[in-house]
Amino acid sequence: MQVLEAIQQFLAYVKFEKKQSAHTLLALENDLGQFSTFLKTVYEQTLITQLSHLQIRSWLSQLMSEGVSARSISRKISSLRSFFKFLMREELILVNPMSKIQAPKVEKKLPVFVEEKAMKTLFDGSLAKEESANEAIEIQEDLILLVYYSTGMRLSELIQLKETDVDLYRMQVKVLGKRNKERIIPIPRELVASLESYLKEKSALGLAHHYVFCLKNGEPWYPKKIYNLVKSKLSQVTTIQKRSPHVLRHTYATHLLNNGADLNAIKELLGHANLSATQVYTHNSIERLKQVYKNKHPRA
To answer: How many other CB atoms are there within 10 angstroms of residue 215's CB atom?
Structure first.
């Protein structure tokens, strides 16, 4: 079987059987497409049965020589592992070449978050308002930021949030996370009031659509537009270099932990599959405790 044909079969499996997100599918398609191009260009090789760990190592070496980060290379190795695991399961190959491949060590970075004081400034109404083309967009901008900080949901989850997912009576929202796993997130009274007011006025604003946040054409907000919004707003209250929607997710989790929330509860709220993914936030709290000790203990 040709490499490209095998890749297409694998991507179809990931999309229709594994039901992975569009973001994951795109990453796999890009990584495996680059690998296929390398094989054809360097080795003039297109048959899946001819692959060995030597060609894979050669590709990884080329990526390193081009200055690709260890984190990106690790992701590409993960894509290859999934691909060859699929080929083994389908009995398209007899030996898994990834068994001899090791991922480079990746430096673990602590999650970047915004300080509580800065978030208070963001929501206390003292910031200068961005000029908006219409009232509907301006109202949604403020609400999007509040939803992020109040729920910690992912970008894809916010974009796909529907009116039927919002339960104002029970003060909660339902989101569809990774691997199509649903979870319920409680929301504070402030957000309940803002959502109630917005949803009542939504049709009058010309936003007749089942998505909570949508544009005048009825389509949901797209990732780049939300990213630019968050970056612009956070630039007014913090000097941290990374100012993305995911930073607000980190901020939500870190502030919960700093104020005494249980780590397992935060895991469920964030929709993490494993506690290890949530434990990274404890490092931020430890640094905070060290600072408290340094500032308050007489012998520090």
So the answer is: 17
Q: Each residue of 214-230: pLDDT tens digit?
A: 988 878 899 999 999 99
Catalytic annotation present for 283:
no
Please pick, among 76, 154, 250, 255, the residue that the annotation labels catalytic.
154
Pick the closest to residue 48 from 12, 16, 80 (CA basis).
80
**Residue 203, SS3?**
coil
> H or E stretch including 172?
strand 172-176
In this prediction the pTM is 0.70
The yes-or-no answer on residue 246 being catalytic is: yes
Instruction: Please tell me which residue in 178, 225, 231, 242 is annotated as part of the active site.
Output: 178
Residues whose CB falls within 8 Å of the CB of residue 217, separated by 6 or more in sequence, listed in order: none
37 to each of 29, 33, 92, 151, how far by Cα in Å? 12, 6, 20, 42
167's enclosing H/E stretch is strand 166-167
Domains of the chain: 3-100 (1.10.150.130), 116-296 (1.10.443.10)
